[in-house]
Amino acid sequence: MKLKSSKNDKDEAEKFLTDVWLAIPKFSNNDQPQESSSNFEVVTEYHLENLLKTFQATKAYTEIEVKENFFNLITECNEKIQEIEPEQDFKIAVEWILPESLLSSPIDCWEYKKNRKIGGERRFFSVHIRSSQRLHICYRDCLQDWKNRWNFLVNHLQEIDESHYISAKQCNQKNDEDLGEVCYDDDKMIVGLNLSNDLQELENISYEELIIETGIPVALWSRAKPFNPNHLKDLDSLINPENKSVLNFDNLPKSIINMRASAKKNQPSHLGHHLCFLWENPYNYPLKTKFRM
Predict the structure, then answer these.
(1) Exposure pattern of 57-83 as b/e (b: 16+ CB <10 Å)?
(2) β-strand 60-62 against 46-51: which pairing, if any?
(3) Quick one: 149 exposed, middle or buried, by C-beta within 10 A (0-12, 13-18, 19+)?
(4) If DSSP codes are grouped into helix, strand and coil, which group holds residue 180?
(5) Which residues of 182-212 are buried (b: 16+ CB within 10 A; e: fewer)?
(6) Which letter does DSSP use for residue 209 in this model?
(7) What 3-state DSSP class applies to 40?
(8) Is residue 116 within 8 Å of residue 92, measured between CB atoms?
(9) CA atoms within 13 Å, Cβ hemisphere of 2
(10) Calpha distance 189→184 (Å, rounded)
């Protein structure tokens, strides 16, 4: 989604151009990823389909209009998958590539309906957000740091401990400047963090400095307003549910799904209603040239 027009008064909603692509990975018989590594696979080739029925390329939509039309998009997506008839099985992921102003919006949430499954009976991997700002040419110098931290995460998956991740509890005890200093330290190789407040409420350090310039690929936070202090513990339980020495990266997307699914309508303060999940594999952008990387 890309901002088309800023609101001229407080009663006018911002409108966004919404460009939707169905990207089905192409794997040879020899290189189809194993189940254990599927969360971190590197895809070099996709079958790409631009979905234009639900959202027209030249029309701008408000955030509410995008949410209202999402089930129509699911139908369009499923029809296209059936039309393509992929030769191999694959997991479904919904990736919202968003401008900074929408990273904490509830656009990644919708009411689940059994007859509206994305991809039919295929396994569901994740719903997460990615930053369109990160792909801008002015941040090209940050690409290698991003890859370095992702590579470290993948290569040390079974041994990454809390020294390489900033918990919400730790984040709450640091001011923004101290937080930035730790994130920039290449020796510490921080690969993720749980923010102790909304991403938009950072005061002395910008989102660009904290996430993009440092190359950090994973972040969790709560968008609840006012902030719920109980969410600090809930956020940290996702990355380290059993208080073990090794963190829960391999199963983190599934833990996010379970947290969101456990949030009932009569539990408005439940973290699952407010959970933001930034998950950015630098190798898996099907449209790199489109985003000028």
Answers:
(1) eeebbebebbbeebeebbebbbeebee
(2) unpaired
(3) buried
(4) helix
(5) ebeeeeeebbbbbbbbbbeebeebebbbbbb
(6) I
(7) helix
(8) no
(9) 13
(10) 8
Cα separation of 158 and 114, whole Å? 35
* Cα distance between residue 282 and residue 293, in whole Å: 10
Beta carbons of 25 and 90 less than 8 angstroms apart: yes
Tokens of 248: 């829960």
The predicted pLDDT at position 245 comes to: 87
pLDDT attached to residue 119:
67
DSSP 216: -
Task: For 138-191, write each residue's pLDDT tens digit.
Answer: 898 999 999 999 999 999 998 999 999 999 999 989 887 888 899 999 999 999
* Mean pLDDT, rounded, of the chain: 84
User: 21 pLDDT exceeds 50?
Assistant: yes
First vs last C-alpha separation in the chain: 17
Task: Please state the three-class secondary structure of 74-103 as a single string.
Answer: HHHHHHHHHHHCCCCCCCEEEEEEECHHHC
SS3 content of the chain, % helix, strand, coil (to 5): 35, 20, 45
Q: Residue 152 contacts by C-beta under 8 Å, 6 or more apart in sequence?
A: 164, 189, 191
